[in-house]
């Protein structure tokens, strides 16, 4: 889930101070609720965790795989001019819920979320059995926000849904296809124009997430025209108001074609597709190297940056 930073009234600062005085920052256990020290780094990601992590930790491996997948299918390469994506993995669901209640009370119940605040890209989640899936989803938002800027809501979520699945395991998509088949059996029909009109995350249902995924799936793994249209769209510097549905329809990749594509995936062997064609990254892009700035200074700056955004600075 992505959320946009927004200004809050000055009273938010008072609430924050009261929350900290009440023990929110430490949760009365003598240790930081939100990890303050980086425990691992891979590619464009810095992971903050109280429990520590190594290069072989599952969280690190899944982020490495995500970067490879996004590089192969979208030509993604992190820029050396951008700050790394900060990923905070809290110890438990209890800690995460406590954190949300005090700092983001307007959010619905979630396992993870991404927030962009100026040049900062932050992901918050907690250690759960679905940590890999949550990390891949929210880290996709963070990566693509840095690479392509703001995207339409449906496309942002569709790409995150697509990359949250381990691309080396096509069978992992089977459950999603079964749910779409049930949707179709109940009379549902895809409607990309309706998706493109959505601007509020609260409008999106689980069915909308599945439909967003299906459009992205067809564009990236279906007829080559779809990939071309998607990559051209992502490469446009100004996408405000630009619709992708007419472009797909002109290439005969409309709702009828989507249903036929999904039907083909459900057939025996339908998911055993050839590997996605590699996309050449843009010239001049380089792999992000370690920042020379000490991690604790970056964390402190981000901390006060967040306070400033809350009080409208």
SSE arrangement:
Elements: E1 2-4, H1 11-21, E2 38-42, E3 45-49, H2 58-74, E4 85-90, H3 93-103, E5 113-117, E6 120-126, H4 131-148, H5 153-164, H6 174-185, H7 192-196, H8 206-221, H9 224-234, H10 245-250, H11 255-266, H12 295-310
Parallel strand pairs: 1-5, 3-4, 4-6
Antiparallel strand pairs: 2-3, 5-6
Short note summarizing the structure:
This protein has 313 residues and is of the alpha/beta class. The protein has helices at residues 11-21, 58-74, 93-103, 131-148, 153-164, 174-185, 192-196, 206-221, 224-234, 245-250, 255-266, 295-310; strands at 2-4, 38-42, 45-49, 85-90, 113-117, 120-126. It has a six-stranded mixed beta sheet with strand order 1-5-6-4-3-2, sandwiched between helices.
